[in-house]
Fold this protein.
Amino acid sequence: MHHRLRLYTGDDEFATTAEPKTSIKLADLIRVISDASRFKRSWLNDFENDDVEIPTDLYDVISTYWEVRPGA
């Protein structure tokens, strides 16, 4: 049997695996993120560019809040 080697370039359609997902209550997430931010935990910076999936209605509320919040 003749083996055929292939060079992996990262474009293989079978190579894409979804990251595992976990659910957490928003109140718990806020509590942890607030604490980490207050105490300037370095691990928080490791995730600052990660995407986070949230429900569309929460996104709408957050976006509206950000647009209409009072100026500093």
Observations:
- The CA atoms of residues 40 and 48 lie 13 Å apart.
